[in-house]
Structures are given as C-alpha cells and as structure tokens.
Amino acid sequence: MALLNPFIYFNGNAEEAFTFYRSVFGGEFARVARYKDIASADYPISENDANRLMHIALPIGKSNMLLGSDVMEHRGQVMVNDNRYTIVIQAEGQEEADALFSGLSAGGRVEMPISYGPGGNYFGMFTDRFGVQWMLDFDPRRGENA
To answer: Per the confidence metrics, is the pTM higher than 0.85?
Structure first.
C-alpha cells in the first residue's frame, strides 16, 4: 500500500514547529530547504521569505514522514482557527500514546483528554501550540506493539 505522509503549511513558523515535533518524535530531519535555496534571476525570492522553509521532512516511525513548509508572505496566510486538517496517530501501545499525547499537546489546547472510551479504544484529541489538530488512538484489541 502507498504511504500517507501529512504535509502541514505554516505562517512563517515551520522551523519552530518542526523543532518541537522532533523533540517529541525524536530522529533527525531528512531534508531542510529554504526558499533562498531556489532563488534565481528568473525566480526572485523576497528578503522576508528567503529564510522561510520551503520544505522540511521528519521521519516518524518505521516508514512515515511528517512534511511541512512555510507559506510565502505574498501568498497570504493559511487558516489557523477552524483548523485546516487533523492528523491521526495510531499508537502501538498505551505507553506510546501517553508519551505522544503529553509531548505534542504541551502548550496547546486539549479538547478530549486521553482515556478509554465506551468503544474500548484509548483516545484523545488536542490542538498543539501551532494550531495543528491531532487525534491519538490506541486499540488494545490489536494488542501492544501489534
């Protein structure tokens, strides 16, 4: 099956957000490119956009990537309120779910604390401090590390 890798747009704070995500998920960036890296006479980049991130990639787990970019100033802003998407993480165990929920929600807004629900899943929802919505889920019927 093809991989699904979320791509998040930011309003000039992609580097700060991805540094935070790396502190939670661990690992090293697979790629970091700035708009100034593609500047040329045919494609000038404004001084305000030069250091913004054109592309960043953070490997997560065995085969996933979290990808992102800053929107260039002349293209406007991306929505922050009434968020633009939700990222769902299927944890391999309750301990991993707790660690990711705690780490990613730090400084954000918890909408549903992580707990076991009527369906038996260990589930929680929050918006991180960068305005990105997340859902964290662990299904114990799949077993730890299943």
So the answer is: no
